[in-house]
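Q: What does the predicted 3D structure of Tripartite tricarboxylate transporter substrate binding protein look like?
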Amino acid sequence: MRISTYLSACIGVSLLLLGMSARAAYPEHAITMVVNYPAGGPLDLLARSIAEYAGKTLKQPVVVENKSGAAGTIGARNVARAQADGYTLLLSVDTIATVNPYVYAQSDFDVNKVMAPITMAGTFNQALVTRKDLGVTTLADFIELARKKDLTYASAGIGSPGHLTMTEFAQALDLPLTHVPYKGNAPATSDLLGARVDAGFLVIGGVAQYVDAGRLIPLAVSGSEPDPLLPGIPTIAGSGLPGLDHFNVGFGFVLMAPKGTPSDIQALWSKLVADAFASPELRERLKSLDLLPTHTSPDETRAYLAKEGTKWKAVVEKAGIRIE
């Protein structure tokens, strides 16, 4: 069955390759996939898995390069300046397109104006977790305490998924929570474990082990479905609490190329990601990272980013979130 699936994928990609114009065959040499966050995280591991699959299918190496900093902007700028020939790609958290343009007040860089979105490449869940000695065990407990006491929450940084999720949560309930930004999920989690902050919306794949060990208390999942790594923990919308019945916050990863990259190359990479996600081996890797194998066409990706951008622009402006 695996051989049949692989052959079908190769045939589909081969047809796209054959359908390309009379320009030089693609790819003729190595392809660079830039990851705009540090090595070792879920995004980096996902990129290396996709690169491995694509390299075997295209019969050319796909090299992953990490260029992190400025909430992903450094790596994105690097790709935007590259030739629009399909040899330099970006794999990023989708906030590079849906949040950064509104958070960086003085920036002259808007990825939506200089990059072509190819496909969403997986989504991830977050959970609202608290330090174990905060004295709450349910979402209702947390909300009640937040109305009586000044609570702090950690995130991976200003404009990060955890910051935005808690901002929308606080806006929905008019809660006066204090944000403590960190430089990444790891230090945010570390200080939560050390009881230097009270709570946080953090990536489930990074905190599940501490929940299992009883070192963090899980209250709810941010997305539309419960998470298999946190059995028995409800979604926020599923909590039944007033004001939260439509709460559904999700983030994902997006593959992009410099604006002007030929549409057939974009279509090729969209199909490559879809075929990679159909691979049983890669699906197991994604499961271990608590990533969901979401895939979209270039048109669907543009529509999704535009919709999410409209939503987050309103949240950011209401909260006054800015990085000068």
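A (community wiki): The structure tokens above were generated from the sequence. The CA atoms of residues 141 and 254 lie 36 Å apart. The domain at 126-239 is CATH 3.40.190.10 (D-Maltodextrin-Binding Protein; domain 2).
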